[in-house]
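Batch manifest, entry 17 of 40.
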Amino acid sequence: MDFPGQKIYIFSMQFDLTLFLSALGLAFILESIPYFLFAERMPGILSTLAQQSPSNLRRLGFTGLLLGVLVIYLGQSF
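Output type: structure tokens
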């Protein structure tokens, strides 16, 4: 029988399903905020992004990845 918050072990690593689903939900919330707040401006922003070169998009993605890792690191250190 599965209970909320039950830990599942995968390759001797602890997997907390509750934490994972909370993080996934938070990601959806954060990704939705610009569309909700700036619905009128988002098509222009997306059009601008679509015109960027792959190297610029890769740099932008890598920067976001580094910022995300930094936030997680700082959150875990407190």
